[in-house]
Amino acid sequence: MYDIIIDNVFATQFDLHIVNRVNIPVSQKEIETISIAGRNGTLTKELGFLDRSITVNFNFKTRNRNDNMSKKIRNITSLLLNAKKISFTDDKEVYYKVKAVSVSDIERTLRMLGSFSVTFTVDPFAYYNLHSKITIASHSKIYNIGTYESEPYIKIFGAGNVTLNINNKELTLKDINGYIEIDTELKETFKDNVLKNDKKVGPYPNFLIGENAVSWSGNITKIEIEPRWRFLWLHYINIMKQTSRMMALAF
Fold first, then answer.
1. Lesser CB count within 10 Å: N end or C end of the chain?
2. Nearest Cα residue to 226 out of 187, 197, 188, 185
3. Among 51, 47, 48, which Cα is nearest to 102's?
4. Are residues 109 and 65 in the same domain?
5. Does residue 234 sit within a domain?
6. Model confidence over 121-161: pLDDT tens digits?
7. Same domain, 14 and 117
């Protein structure tokens, strides 16, 4: 049965049933177009990828006439509004990170039946759902199976000052005592939720598509990595932010 999985909970466990197969919109890149007086054509500036909206239409029912419909609706609403990630049973290899949720008014067609729609605002990527943590204890090569560079979580075990090298880009971490953590998505360095950004020198590393070389210097015993492989179906959209700039260009 086709279903949506909300934070590891199947919607059918709440007697929610998807009315029709859900359309997953293509990721779109936002581009600013700049018009410059005296220049043929325009300049373009890439602004990143846009969030997407995934709308799901639901029917729901109570199992018997003695069920408390109001309580069921409260439980359903709580599940939906607190969603952090969603996936679908026809493609369980990936999930989508939820940023916001909008729930329509619930229409009670009969005492035991109802319908409504939910719009999930998700970020531009689909994330690999089946990959476990990677642990390395020596210089290694890690293969990014996604279609876009990933922003991993990395936990480094060791002592003192160390330098992590990923694809010839160096990140130095100072005064490690046991371990230190870096989150390249959040651009934060920490240990046990205590910020340690002052212990970092250099850019946060990403894993490029394909092969990535990982090495280091200093006293590192092992590294644990949550790679966060992600996928992108690229579709360019031109967001016409016509910025009229009167510039005198000499070519």
1. C
2. 185
3. 51
4. yes
5. no
6. 999 999 998 877 999 999 999 999 999 999 999 999 999 99
7. yes
